[in-house]
Amino acid sequence: MESPRELWTGRFEAGWRDRCHATVPQQEAAYHKKFGVSKTQVLSPFLDAIGDQPSILEVGCSYGGQLAFLEHHGFNNLTGIDISKDAVLQAGSEEGVSADLTMGDAASLPFVTDAFDVIFTSGCMINIPPLNYWEFVGRSLV
Question: Domains in the chain: how many in total?
Answer without folding.
Answer: 1
